[in-house]
Amino acid sequence: MSRPRWGLWLAGLLLAGLLVLLASALWQGRPHTLPAARLGAAFPALPRPVLGRAPGLLQTVVADGQPRLVNLWASWCGPCRQEQPLLMALAARLRAKGQGGRLVGLNYRDTPQDATAFLAELGNPFALTLVDADGRLAIELGAYGAPETYLVDAEGHIAFRHVGALTQEVIDRDLLPKLEAP
Amino acid sequence: MKRHFAWLLTLPAAALAQPASAPEPDPERLQALYRQLRCLVCQNGSLADSQAPLALDLKREIALRVAAGDSDRGIIDFLVQRYGEFISYQPPLEPATWLLWLGPLLLLLGGAAWLFHQRRHGPVEPEEPVDPP
Fold first, then answer.
1. Which of A17, A99, B28, B89 has the greatest number of CB atoms lying within 10 Å of its CB?
2. Same domain for B102 and B59
3. Chain B nearest CA to A148, separation (Å)
4. Strands A48-49 and A128-132
5. What is the domain range of residue B58?
6. Cβ-Cβ contacts under 8 Å, A134 against chain B
7. Could you read off the pLDDT of B38-73 as tens digits, one per residue?
8. DSSP-based three-state secondary structure for A102
């Protein structure tokens, strides 16, 4: 006579459940949406030199009632090259409304020569570019690499983060509504 | 054009000058810290094993903070606040990590229960006597 072996069935069921759970986690692979740990936090106040100006004059982004778009880029970064036309179009649109000052570049782990050449070749959409040669501001932002884009609201808080090259869809949907606010 | 830059705060460089090269205080303490933290741009590896640019920057940042007298806890908190728990190889106990922390205990208890069950209600057939050759 064979008694039903409930314990064995239960154990098997648990094991199968665990395997399904692990397999689904494996399938999702590496998280593409990175944890946006800094959302809502103030944009880091670490002062940086400005590209094309005296290296001794350090500057930082401070809240002055206007939203800003901070684009982290580098001349060695392929996707940055790819998103540059979109940034140029965005800059033209903002400048037409007198809001050109809202676009800020953050040049990441680069040399001034390469960065300047990059902007000369592809155009310069930024009102100015902060120089993060040692990557310390990027660490303060929790950035993984270039490009990344941050929307800083009028109060100076990080309102949105985009990792990787910008797309027109992201610009239209996530950035423009807040960036064009008066 | 000038008003575009009115929002920028200008500071003298000397006020924020940093030593060009980070002093390396206690190498063993640094290595222990590096081992607890993920090289974010590698598939799976700690800072200690990585030469990736971001990992080198993070190691220099950690060395600077150790030299400045920060505690290990303070440094890890600083990085977790910026990169999320993903950077830490010692995840905290929270709902999303219950299975991670309690899973092995559950497996152990399950195994023990099964063994106990086997001993009490194990196979009743006596073992076959082994025929001598």
1. A99
2. no
3. 14
4. unpaired
5. 22-90
6. 57, 60
7. 888 887 889 998 999 999 999 999 999 999 999 999
8. helix
